Amino acid sequence: MQGDDFLQTAGTNIADTHPSSTLKLTPKIGYILQSADFSAIAPLPTGVSSVVFTQGSGPNPVDPFTVDCTITLDNPLTMPDNDLDLGICISGQGVPKQWARVLNVSSDINANATATLTGGTIDLSGQYNTVQTQTQTINANSGYYISKTPSVFIGTKVPNNFTTSTQEFFSSKGHLIKVIMTTNYLVDASDSIIDTIKYIVQDVKEIPANNIVQVNSYTFDSSSIGQSGSVREMIVRGVYGASFSVNVVDSLSTNIFSFTGTIPNTGIESLFINFPKISSGSETYTVTISGTLNPSLSPTTFDVNQYEDIQVGFSITSTNGFVGSTISPTVNKYFTANQSFSSSLTEPTGSYIYRILIENPTGTLNAQSDVINFPVTNSFTNIDGSIAGGSEIFINSCVFAEYEESGVVSNNKILMTLVYAPLSIGTLDVASTINIDNFLTFN
């Protein structure tokens, strides 16, 4: 709970100009505060006539979970010659909130496969920072195999809180016949009942009757590679003895990986391809698989792109004279370029925090009385992804708070804290600005 500091002339009645003070109690993340759970501890200090707790309200998403503490002063209450400190002792605590997270299920399942989940909803609600799990099982029908690992797409504004994994089961001849897909959700301090999850299983083929000695399928993550490089696993499946080769070249046709061999008796060959680090710019690698391949195997040649990592940063602009600077531990975060985190625009709570210290170098600045309005996503520039190579960034919240220097609340500096979530990262650095004159009064 923050204090309320103000100036008062000695010998005057404080209640004439400042009859009461309202202080806001803010919960730790994942908790909520309820006014009925709080009370003042008697006796009240001399000069205080009453302390009342009410449920918070306001424009910020967290406000309904806060509690306002209104302290009414005695009337009259004469200001002494020295500073007056009225400390209030209170009793109360926050309670964990059950955060709702319901995913609407859709699917695109080949007729020659079955899935345990094809529609309806998945409820992954829980308390903050717990892990909720859901599994989906895909089975190829008798006489068929899954030629490409099924895909799952999650539409959410908290993509970093979701992880997915797959467990694959093969026949004795190397055909993928069953996949268990597991979705883990690390509960975020936000509610949503409109997130989506879609399962796609389209590459299902008939098992050849004569079990031809050939490569039947492969799996490989062809998404963009970060600047520091990566080791990617390529899993090739087929009938024992099938010969094949895998080659990878860069944009200058320099070979960075080469393999020639045959499918072992397990029906699976795992290859680990090392994509090197780049110092800047971008690179394109071409991956080619050849040999005794199933005629329906596709693609046999594909590209993998590598980009310089993209940094995301924010700053303020002001014609009135406000000055802004980042404050530790805030730094511009780097992301792997050319990637998407979500396909929907549902209500998010982002996973990254950015803090900017705002100063009025010639006057005063107060986090309560000088705030005109609170910024939203469209208050910031360069985050709508409309330009080529741009990124789509959602601003979940942006609030102003007091700033303390050496334990004393500053009278000309406040702290702006924004929480953001990347929906997609392009290939250009994000340098977003906000015209702070639209939100703060310059005194």
Secondary structure class reads mainly beta
Shape: elongated
Can you give the helix content as a percent range? under 10%
What is the residue-mean pLDDT, rounded to a whole number? Answer: 90
Instruction: Kindly provide the radius of gyration, computed on alpha-carbon positions and rounded to a whole number of angstroms.
Output: 30 Å
- Detail the poorly predicted runs: 342-349
Total discrete domains: 4
What is the number of strand segments? 34
Write up this protein.
The protein is mainly beta and 443 residues long. The protein folds into 4 domains: 14-96, no CATH class; 98-206, no CATH class; 215-307, Immunoglobulins (Immunoglobulin-like, Sandwich), CATH 2.60.40.10; 310-438, no CATH class. 1% of the residues lie in helices and 49% in strands. It contains 1 helix and 34 strands. The longest helix has 4 residues, at 14-17.
List the helices and strands and how they pair.
Blueprint: H1 14-17, E1 20-25, E2 31-32, E3 39-40, E4 48-55, E5 67-73, E6 90-91, E7 95-96, E8 98-99, E9 101-109, E10 113-115, E11 121-123, E12 126-127, E13 131-140, E14 144-146, E15 151-155, E16 162-170, E17 176-186, E18 192-201, E19 204-206, E20 215-219, E21 230-238, E22 243-249, E23 255-262, E24 268-275, E25 282-291, E26 301-307, E27 310-317, E28 323-326, E29 333-335, E30 339-340, E31 352-359, E32 392-405, E33 408-425, E34 430-435
Brief summary:
By secondary structure, the protein is mostly beta strands. It has one helix and 34 strands.
